[in-house]
Every structure is written in C-alpha cells, then in structure tokens.
Predict the structure.
Amino acid sequence: MLRLLLSLLLLLGAAAALPAPRRRRAAAPPPAPYLTRYLRQQIDHFGFDENLTFQQRYLVADQHWKKDNGPILFYTGNEGDITWFCNNTGFMWDVAEELNAMLVFAEHRYYGESLPFGNESFSDSKHLNYLTSEQALADFAVLIEYLKTTIAGARYSPVIAIGGSYGGMLAAWFRMKYPHVVVGALAASAPIWQFGDLVPCGTYFSIVTNDFKKSGTGCSESIRNSWNAINNLSSTDAGLQWLSSTFHLCSPLKNLQDAAILKNWLSETWINLAMVNYPYKADFLQPLPAWPIKEVCKFLKDPSLSDKLLLENVFQAVNLYYNYSGEASCLDTSETATKNLGQLGWYYQACTEMVMPMCTDGVNDMFEPQKWDFEALSEECYRLWGVRPRPSWILSMYGGKNISSHSNIVFSNGGLDPWSAGGVTQNITDSLVAIVIPDGAHHLDLRSRNPGDPKSVQQARALEICYMKQWIEKARHSH
C-alpha cells in the first residue's frame, strides 16, 4: 500500500509540473529562431561558505524587440529541458510582435543542461541540496539583472514573468519575492494553494472524475468499477496472465505488487487525459484526438459488465491514449508521459518542499480510496533520498492565502484542469486577478492560437494581453 501511495504522490508531483505542450509534428511550423546562452550562477545564493558556480542555460529571441527599453517576456522554466518549453509555449511567440517584446526562456537549475554538479547532480542529497524554488528564483533574478546591464537598450525594459503549472507557481512567486525585478506575472494553471490544508485534498480527483462524467454516460462509473475487477482477477495466476495479455503489457504481471503498479498506471492515464483534454488534435504527452476524454468514454458506456468485458473496454480506452498513432506493439506501465520531464529532480522536490496533499474516497471520485498519509511519504522520502519533507515551508515562504499585499499577478485556470483545485480562481484584489477558462484543460491559454480554440480561451488571452500592456505602460511612466 505504501508503494502505491508514494508512486501516486510522485506521479501527481510529476503531473504538477507538466510543461507547455507540443503540437503534432505534421502541423508544427519550423522552430522559431532563438539564441542559446549560458550564465555562470552561484550554486548557493544564500550562503557564503561555498563559492561554487554552474552554467545556467537560457534562450533569447529578440526579432520583435523594440531596442529602446522594449518589454521582456521572461519564461520561468520548470522541471524539464528549456528548449522544449521554448518551442512549445506558443502564446509567447504569438504576442511578441504585438508587444514589441524580447523573449527569454530561463532553464531551471538541475534540469536540461543546467546541472550544478554535472553528472553528480543527482548522486545524493548533498548534491541535491540546492534544488529549491528559492534558489531557482534567485537564478532568475540574477539573470535578469545581467541581461539588463549587458544588452544595450534594455536597462529600463519592463520584465513580465510567464509560466505554466510549476512554472506558473514560480512566475507568481517571482513577482511576490522580487517585485523590483518583474513588473507583473502571468501564472497559468498554477496550484499555489495545493499545500497544507488550504484546499480539500480530494478536490483534484473530483475534477478529474467530473471531466469523465460529463464526457459520456457510464464512463466514470466504468472506471470506478474497474478497480475491483482488477483486484478480482489479480488474485490468481491465471487472472494475472489474462490481464497481461488483455492490456498487451510489455512486462507480464507476476504478483499483486505488479497489479498495484497496473492500477497506478491506469490512474495516471485518466489524470493525464484530464489535463490534456484539448478541443483539437494535440501532441502534449501523447498524440491525441480532439476532446480525447469523449473519445475514451465511447469505450466505457456500460459499468455493469462482467469483470473481463469491462476490462477489455478499459484496455480499448487506454490504448487510445498510448497508441493513437498505432505504432506501439505493447504497452509499458513504467511510461506514462513525455521524456522531456526531469522526473528524478521533481521527485526530490516532492520529497522536500513541494508537498501537495492529495486523497481519494471512491465516492466523490472514481478512484480507489486513499487517505493522505504524510508519515508514509516522509518515510519513503527518507528511504529514497535521506531527506524529510517540510509540509509547511512553502506556506511560510510564499504566504499561502495571505497574499493580498502583492500586486500585478494574473492567475489563469481551466475549468477542466484538475490542478485548478489548488489554483486562484477568484479575484483577490483588483491587481491579483483570476481568469477562469471553463472549456480549458491544463494551461490551454499558453498554447499557440488554434482555429479550434473555444471562445473562452480567446477571451482569456485577450485579457492577459490587456493586463500585460497596462503593466508595461505603468512601468514606462515610472522612468
């Protein structure tokens, strides 16, 4: 049970940090041109005993920049390779010309090429000690100061932080902690309140469930009933063999532990589908059709079927997610998302300061009941890394819900996105603004414009641009 809990927590952490999406390769334009640069950063910004440094990678695109203090849109990189974010945060590329803006994409320490200790970076907790949101924000602040002093005409350029998911959290926190460095922030799908007891631990999973409930009769009920079906079949060797064969698994199931991994893998699949439930064909975590949950639910109409018939339908549903292209010869339960995410680093962050309580009850959601068990998480983190999580540190550091003294942050959330459970969905003040996109999944607004965009995301982007123009104008008048 502990391993099931931890892998679920870790997959939730990894999902938290999903990056800006890719479009299907066939439709994607050639990558927009950018320059790759490196800046020597302190490994420890907050202590003076160590004077070690590392090279932080960042990307710059200034084709549309107005050289006389034109604005800079600064992407606060999250846990993955920054070139991937750069090529796929279409919104920034779409608005660069309109705002006469330079685009900068900063890589987060310990991800991509920005490894403080090279190949040793993940070797032990001593080397991982500098992987925190605070150190990452300090990197960003130092980088912006460097750009302003070394790029001619940028000294008084107003800088706006932009990020999605964990990157959105960083964008918001960056404006809170360094208001003299960035004039505002767009925090897309940023669950800054998914900590402590700020929000109920079960809301996330009830949103996932509602996405399926709304997409087809019998759909969420079929998924809820599938867990018992798997439990029944996995109690015998013949049943394990049947499951392995029916789900076309690359590695056959041998015991109950393997069956628990199968259930985890299915849970993560339903969660990922909720995040990428986009209104057009997309290639985010996997190549998928438009409104993929509707397509999945076509296989899950009858929850009253026998165990085997029900699970044959569940296989058809997950096969759409993993094998929409028809290229997979078998399904691998160890793979659920894209390889561009730095999962090892995020697991460490989930074991230290990014502690987001999650739970299920099997009544308000379609998952097996699982209480939030901090002790179990703590023990597993200690076993893995030799560290203990600090569940209240993020609240002490960034203020929890007590953030009304801050300004100029737009929080955007999609109504279909489970991470909106921990997001800011109502205005706090007239300059801490919430934009809710009812038809939006995970940071749909940061994706490129698309003919299939619902009106709600078009309006959200227009509003975001409007706020950014206000911040830029105000900053101009202050010089």
